[in-house]
Amino acid sequence: MSVTLQDSDCPVILRGVRTHFDRVRNVWVLLAPERVLKLDDIGRAILDEIDGTRSFGEITAILAEKYDAPPERISEDARTYLSGLIARRMVEAR
Amino acid sequence: MSAPRANPPMAMLAELTHRCPLSCPYCSNPLELERKDRELTTDEWKDVFTQAAEMGVLHVHFSGGEPASRRDLEEMVAHARDAGLYTNLITSGIGLTRRRLEALDSCGLDHVQLSLQGVDAQMADLVGGYKGGFDRKMQVAGWIGEIGFPLTLNAVMHKKNFDRLEETIAIALDMGARRLEVATVQFHGWAAKNRAALMPTREQAKQARLTVNAARARLAGVLVIDYVPADHHSDYPKPCMGGWASTGINIAPDGSVLPCHAAHTIEGLNFDKAHERPLKDIWYNSHAFNAFRGFDWMQEPCRSCELKTKDFGGCRCQAMAIAGDAAATDPVCIKSPLHAELVRRAEADAEDDADLIYRLMPD
Fold first, then answer.
1. Residue partners of B84: CB distance under 8 A and separation at least 6
2. What's phi and psi for B324, nearest 5 deg?
3. A6 touches chain B (CB under 8 A)
4. Domains of chain A
5. Which of A81, B188, B303, B331 could form a disulfide with B262 if both were Cys (CB 3.0 to 4.6 A apart)?
6. Chain A environment of B220 (Cβ under 8 Å)
7. A14–B152: do the CB atoms touch at under 8 Å?
8. Is the Cβ pair A33, B152 closer than 8 Å?
9. Does B56 contact A33 at a Cβ distance shorter than 8 Å?
């Protein structure tokens, strides 16, 4: 089973996985079954654009414009990041 | 001796009750179980969850016994969720109805971890000591899937079921589980009474790792598999709890606050009660929580060992149980003078064919 993400795929954050601001440690985290991932600004920016309807291609285009960064670079970073979350069953590509 | 300043705890194991319809011979509860009338009240538990969220706990695991034995489970889940905690229900499924699961859904329950006692009714009902338990569990798993809760299946593995690991993985897939925990029995609590009935052979432990690794590759993106190996067949100890009182905090049914669920076995430690002292004070300042933090408490061979920052000397409860000294090196470690004896005993128990001794509630 491959966990690669195509531009036309629509990434979805699965139920039971949510971002949360940890007031005690002053950091954003991703809460998931039996796991907590610390979110950096990039991870959070990517996850914030996932709304269940946008394709991966649309998400990376939005990010490239918002952060004035090369689309290929954004696409590569976001693909690596989300593929990791897909492998961990926190995000699904539909 | 001053212990280093601890970080806030990440997770809380809330053992709401020791009551349970099952009587699994590897139950991690203590041999002396608490009766219902000693359990914390609903309001006391709610206060625990409020304090937990305020001090930095992120996940709360509702456990037991069987947490569904508490009729106020839904109310407590709702309260914990409102306090900002991620709520996980660790259950055998027995005692849950579709209606209760729907209520838990509306209370905001985030995740369910369902235990599996065997891959068919014959094995599961034998291990759980509860006739009809398997069929009921499969029904509950169906409801969990229909409601849409994310599901982790927890399979405790031992001598009698290791050879059916592939079937266990297949059941996790059938249930639509996202995660599977293949957890080899840890020999504490009731399991310590059942070593001769449950200790896997070295060959089983070796085969299990191969099976898990192959399944992980085959099921990437479908099923995440966590594997807890048979530590009596290992050369180095597990990094128990990520180090004593470093990440997790455990509340027993009577409110005892422990660094792990077996810590009460350690002699000389006095555990405060959640309804008698603020949790934050217990976590940072109590003698029991500071007893094995950092590295100053260590003896040789741990003290000068470069692995001490990775495995923290292993499990304090296992050191207590086998070496008779909670500050000793976990005898699982090949550097422990007791390692050879541990291996000899594990191999002897693995070859034995003892009957199961079931967990019993007090009269």
1. A20, B53
2. 75, 15
3. no
4. 11-93 (1.10.10.1150)
5. B188
6. 1-3, 87
7. no
8. yes
9. no
CA gap B155, B218 in Å, rounded: 19
- Chain A and chain B share a number of CB contacts under 8 A equal to 66
Tell which of A28, A34, A36, A90 to mutate to test the B interface (max B CBs under 10 Å).
Answer: A34
Interface confidence, given as ipTM, is 0.93
Nearest chain B residue to A4, by CA: B221
- Whether A24 sits inside 8 A of B226 (CB atoms) is no
Residue B170 in tokens: 């297949």
| pTM for this model (two decimals) | 0.95
**pLDDT tens for each residue of chain B, 363 residues long:** 455 679 999 999 999 999 999 999 999 999 989 999 999 999 999 999 999 999 999 999 999 999 999 999 999 999 999 999 999 999 999 999 999 999 999 999 999 999 999 999 999 999 999 999 999 999 999 999 999 999 999 999 999 999 999 999 999 999 999 999 999 999 988 999 999 999 999 999 999 999 999 999 999 999 999 999 988 899 999 999 999 999 999 999 999 999 999 999 999 999 999 999 999 999 999 999 999 999 999 999 999 999 999 999 999 999 999 999 999 999 999 999 999 999 999 999 999 989 999 998 766
Q: How far apart are CA B255 and CA B275, in angstroms?
A: 7
- Could you tell me which of A36, A85, A19, A89 has the C-alpha nearest to residue B11? A36
Yes or no: say if B122 and B96 are a contact pair by the CB < 8 Å rule: no
Q: Could you tell me which residues of chain B have a Cβ less than 8 Å from any Cβ in chain A?
A: 8, 10, 54-56, 58-59, 84, 86, 88, 110-111, 113, 148-150, 152, 178-179, 218-224, 226
Q: Are the CB atoms for B265 and B236 separated by under 8 Å?
A: no
